[in-house]
SDR family oxidoreductase (Paenibacillus xanthanilyticus), 289 residues
Amino acid sequence: MIVVTGANGQLGRLVVEQLLLHVPAEQIGISVRDVNKAANLKERGVRVRGGDYNDAASLAHAFDGASQVFMVSSNDLGESTVRQHRTAIEAAVRAGASRIVYTSQMGASPDSYFPPMVDHAATETLLVDSGLAYVSLRNGFYADSALMLLGDALRTGELAAPEDGPVAWTSHGDLAEAAAVALLDGSIGGVTPVLTGSEVMDLEGIAAMAAELLGRPVRRTVIADDAYRAELIARGLPEERADMFAGLYRACRRGEFARTDSTLARLLGRPTAPFRDTLKRAIDRLPRG
């Protein structure tokens, strides 16, 4: 049985849908914090069990019978994330799983300016030390994250953010399909090459593309890192999270997310989805009038 964690999230749910195209539902299990949100999958024959990275006993139940565990990374930061991932890896080992497929990121590094990348690097070390076969998917930066960085710019026509750099924006759909390939193809192992779209784009380029699609100007203005951080805190964001977002821009400036690679397209057997598609869908959802 393949057990997918985080299956109520965007990536996890898409991975389950991809697996359902290739294997019977009874060979798929999911581990989620809220089983009620997964009622539809249960009705389709997927095994649904409660599992929380903070609760080893719940994971023992959720991972029972797993041959593989698809381990979606935690949304926490720092030691909390590493502790949760250690708990999940140890639970997979105790459940008898032979393989873990983990959602790492293209910028994973112990010296990254963006804190989640440090956590990914630490988790990859845990995977090596576990003794299990593993795949660490070095996923490109989610294209939907660019929409978050846009903020209200599609409405206001002004994109104000710190100096950034080019990013290989990559769609959730493409990454979910690649994850399913990794789960079904036992020959894929270890840390993958970066799994990215074929293009890189900075916020100035995104603003220009948005202006073209909207048919009206979207101006990119640069603000100081400290001013940006202070604004986030003023809006109620905890300092740790404000530091994280400020670190993201520093990492972008250093080029941590600027690489592209053909591996994702090769795994998919087709070209990767262009960022323009993600941006156009967001614009099409804007209120009219």
Notes: The chain is about 45% helix and 15% strand. Residues 2-140+171-191 form a domain with the Rossmann fold fold (CATH 3.40.50.720). The chain has a mean pLDDT of 96. The CA atoms of residues 111 and 245 lie 16 Å apart.
